[in-house]
Design a protein that fits this description.
The protein is an alpha/beta fold. The chain contains eight helices and five strands; from the N terminus they run βββαααβαβαααα. Strands 3-2-1-4-5 form a five-stranded mixed β-sheet, sandwiched between helices.
């Protein structure tokens, strides 16, 4: 499954009241690995940012004056995310803004162009109930280096979120089966008669059983108790 980690910066907090996207950053994951392929643009929102928003992202109105409008990059953006699972922190915020931009161009809604949306904020709240689950807090908790993040930036935040997502879902990679035909397992030795071998049966030690139980408990806790064993 191709995954796209996405973040935006905006002129303010309300897409419904006319705030617009000023920066969009996307990072591609394949097989839960960052590929280095990304999509990034600053955008002219045709309005000034609110003072509080400026304090968050530090992107001046003057800097954005000669940048393209969303309509110019919309086709490339949709091509980049087409058919992928989209990963966003606090997804309702970014999706609300992206839907407004797409609707202005009669391009439907974001979910019509992608395979699905995963909200890492919801994931984090299930895994760490009662704790701070901002991107910075998760970076600190999960050991993701965010030293370069003095202000919010869409591409930098998407790159950090990609690392956070991989940490939040670690352990799943061993349970995933690649669906790509190029990655299918070939059972070349399936016709070997094992009856000719005297195969010893090695029982687990008490320490190994204990470590196995601890590993299962960790997986159960990480999944919020949604396990099948």
């Amino acid at each position: 499954m191709r995954q796209i980690v996405l973040d935006t910066e905006t002129t303010g907090l309300s897409a419904e009241n006319g705030d617009r996207i000023i920066e969009i950053g996307c990072v591609e994951l394949l097989g839960r690995k960052i590929t280095g392929n990304h999509f990034h643009h600053y955008l002219n929102p045709q309005r000034d940012s609110h003072e509080d928003a400026l304090k968050v992202h530090g992107i001046s109105n003057e800097f954005l004056r000669d940048k393209p409008e969303f309509s110019v990059i919309a086709s490339d953006f949709l091509s980049f995310i087409a058919g992928a699972e989209i990963i966003i922190h606090n997804a309702s915020f970014d999706i609300g803004f992206l839907n407004k931009e797409l609707e202005r161009l009669n391009l439907g809604r974001l979910t019509e162009h992608v395979a699905g949306v995963t909200d890492t904020l919801s994931m984090a709240k299930e895994m760490f109930p009662g704790k701070r689950n901002s991107l910075d807090a998760l970076c600190d908790r999960l050991g993701v280096n965010n030293a370069a993040r003095t202000l919010h930036g869409a591409l930098l935040d998407a790159e950090l979120l990609a690392d956070v997502y991989i940490c939040l879902t670690r352990g799943q990679n061993a349970l995933l089966i690649q669906e790509d035909s190029q990655d299918q397992v070939h059972h070349e030795n399936a016709d070997i008669d094992l009856s000719q071998f005297d195969l010893p049966v090695i029982s687990s030690t008490e320490q190994e059983i204990k470590e196995h139980s601890n590993a299962m408990a960790t997986l159960s806790k990480s999944s919020g108790g949604h396990v099948v064993w």
